[in-house]
């Protein structure tokens, strides 16, 4: 047992409050990680606001990066001192895990969103009372986390922690949607709706594999400017005439469109911006959208729902690191760092659009 510092959510929608908590030693297949950085994701905020009251108090955070301090007796993939990126939990045994699609693990809900381990326990406690955790298998809004070994990916020691952290979710979600699911041919057109951390990760991946043109859509001028710097041929504000403008830029409609905003009206407009037999990837969480089915049929549109970029993190995170080292996935361009103690300021900066990817750092 060790004393740790955690950002605790006391009730649904409550702010993050820094508290001292107790953390158990790792079980046989678990890893104790001392956090050096953790990204703040819109999913943390959305889930915090809708989280069941019965699973509070709760520790969120799911883009952790750090160093291994201890491992359970049956862990073989990492050793103390290793630098690691943390990612979502999966069972490793179901048909989806066996087919290298762990984002669709049959036990995903239990392992990532139940407020603890699969057996109902939690490694965290607050004043002797269980403190819910295990968010995306990690709950990394804390100085330390105990994580199942399948949620730990070893990374190079010289990779900045502020770059390693977002790879565990937003980086692999955006890039994986392009590289693992859509798999565009060089020269094909791709549009990204929403130039946040996920959208710009998708954009960078599309540029890296030679999509042309790549077009971004976002209401924030600074994000549109960054999209151009990262390789987009054009960056547009949403509004009247958007569909026509996208069709003009893509010579009659995009081959691929990645929708990251979670706004139903944007998903519906996306269909109009696609060419016949175009592909639409929906990444936003927790919303409903209705489509004109005849419009989909007439165009032969293929609609993809994608979680975590359909990634196998042990394979895909090293691929993204390789792209980063070659200058083809400059994730650091999206990051702004904040001390862990300033988590409230980081959340506010993401909310007002002044920061794309806040990353909390630990001393």
Overall number of domains = 2
Give the uncertain stretches in residue-range form: none
Query: What is the CATH C-level name of the largest domain?
Result: Alpha Beta
Please describe the biggest sheet, giving its number of strands, its sense, and whether it closes into a barrel: 7 strands, mixed
Rg, please?
20 Å
Shape: globular
Order of helices and strands: EEEHEEEHHEEEEHEHEHEHEHEHEHEHE
Give the CATH superfamily of the largest domain: Medium-chain alcohol dehydrogenases, catalytic domain
Helix content: 25-40%
What number is the mean pLDDT? 96
Strand segment count: 18
Task: Report on the architecture of this protein.
The chain is of the alpha/beta class. It folds into 2 domains: 2-168 and 310-361, Quinone Oxidoreductase, Chain A, domain 1; 174-307, NAD(P)-binding Rossmann-like Domain (Rossmann fold, 3-Layer(aba) Sandwich). It contains 11 helices and 18 strands. The chain has helices at 42-50, 95-98, 108-113, 161-182, 197-208, 221-229, 242-249, 264-272, 293-299, 313-325, 343-351; strands at residues 2-9, 16-23, 30-39, 58-59, 64-71, 83-86, 124-126, 129-131, 144-148, 152-154, 190-193, 214-217, 234-236, 254-259, 274-282, 302-305, 335-339, 357-361. The strands form 3 sheets. Strands 3, 5, 6, 9, 10, 17 and 18 form a 7-stranded mixed sheet that branches. Strands 13-12-11-14-15-16 form a 6-stranded parallel sheet, sandwiched between helices. A 5-stranded antiparallel sheet has the order 4-1-2-7-8, with no helix packed on it. Strand 11 (190-193), helix 5 (197-208) and strand 12 form a beta-alpha-beta unit. Helix 4 (161-182) packs across helix 10. The radius of gyration is 20 Å and the shape is globular. The mean pLDDT is 96.
